[in-house]
User: Fold this.
Amino acid sequence: MNAMNKVLVVGGGIGGLCAAIALRRKGISVDLVELKSEWTVYGVGIIQQSNVVREMSRLGLLDAYLEAAYAFEDVAINTTEGQQLVRIPGQRLAGPQYPANVGISRRALHKVLSETTLELGATVRLGTSVESLEQDDNGVDVLLTDGTRARYDLVVGADGLYSKVREMLFGNQYLPRFTGQSVWRYNFPRLPQIDHLANFQGPAGNAGLVPLSDDLMYMFTTSHEPGNPWMPHDCLAAEMRKRLQDMGGLIGELREQIVDNDEVVYKPLEAVFVDEPWYRGRVLIIGDAAHATTPHLGQGAGMAIEDALVLSEELTGEGDLPQQLARFMARRFERCKYIAEKSLLAGEKEMARDRDFDRIGLVKEMLAVTAQPI
Ligand SMILES: Cc1cc2nc3c(=O)[nH]c(=O)nc-3n(C[C@H](O)[C@H](O)[C@H](O)COP(=O)(O)OP(=O)(O)OC[C@H]3O[C@@H](n4cnc5c(N)ncnc54)[C@H](O)[C@@H]3O)c2cc1C
Assistant:
C-alpha cells in the first residue's frame, strides 16, 4: 500500500474542512491553508439533505452538527399563492433516530467544522495560500505565500470556484461562467409553519423558505439577470422586493419586511465543471474547485462533503496513489456531473419560464440518486 502520511489542504471552506476532518480521522497528518486572514463566512443558511446528514454521521460529526442545525423532514413545493403541489417525505439515511434533512446557518456549520478540524490536530494557517507546487513521483514540494516550504504526499485544492490550484493544474482551460441568474437571500424570524423546506414556484419566479433554528429562517429567490448587472449596496433591499413583486401568499407578505440593505445577500450564480480526472499526479481538486454549480438542487456543499469522505476512504484503501485516485474519480465523477448538469438545467428552465418542465420529478429523482450509497 502507498504511504499517505502528510496532506496539504488548500482552502478552509466546507469541502476543505471536511477533507481535513476525514483525513485526520484516518490518522493522516494535515496542514490546511486558508486565504482569508479572518476565518469567517457570510451569514445566511444552507440546506443539507439526507445524503449530507448521512455523511456527517460517517465523519463522526453528527451530534455537534445537529445541535447547531434545525432538523426537518419534508420538502414541500407550493405555488407562489400557497397551494401545495407536493410534499416529499424525508429519507432518514443516517438512521431512524436521526432527522432526514437540516437547515443550518453557514456560520454555525463553519464553527462546527473549524472547531473539529482544530480538535483533531490539523495545523491551520490563515491568510496563507500556495505560491508554487513542484511534484515528482514521491511527493510535492510546496512553497506557501508566507515563505514556508514543506513536502507533502498529496495536495488537495478545495479552494472554491476561483481555485488557484485548478489554475496551477489546468491553466485557463476551466473558467467560471455566469449562468444568467442570481440568488437573493434574507433572514427572518422563523414562522411556526416553516418547520420544513418550503419551495414556492410560479410564473413570476421561484422562492423558498428554509428553517435554520427555532428562531431563524431565510428566504431565497432566484432571478434572471441578463448581463450580470452591478447591484449597488444601497438598493439591495428594494431590488430584492422588486424581484418578488408578483408573488402572493406568504412570500408576498414577507416581501414587505425586506428593508435592510445590509441583510440582503446577493449572489450572481457561476458554474464550472472540470472533466475527469480532477488530478495531475499528486495534486487533486475537490468541491467547487472541480464542480461548482447552481443551488437549484441544494447539493453543492453536499457534493464537496462527499468528495472529502470518499477521498479519505480511498487514500487508506488498497493499491498505490494512482489506483486510489482513479477509484476516487470513479466514485465521484458521474454523481457530481449529474448534480452539476441537473442544477444548471433547472436554472435554464426557470429563465425560459418553461411551464412544462417537471421540477417536482427532478427533485424526486435527485433525492433518489443522492440516497444511493456513494
Ligand atoms: C447562492 C448559493 C446558495 C447555495 N446553497 C446551497 C445549499 O443550500 N446546499 C448546498 O449543499 N450547497 C449550496 N450552495 C453551494 C455551496 O455553497 C458550495 O458548493 C460549497 O460552499 C463548496 O464548498 P468548497 O469548500 O468547495 O468551496 P468554498 O465554500 O468556496 O470554500 C473555498 C475556501 O477556499 C478559500 N480559498 C479560496 N482561494 C484560496 C487560495 N488561493 N488559497 C487558500 N484558500 C483559498 C476560500 O476563502 C474559502 O474559504 C450554494 C451556493 C450558492 C452560490
The longest strand covers residues 177-189. The CA atoms of residues 203 and 355 lie 8 Å apart.
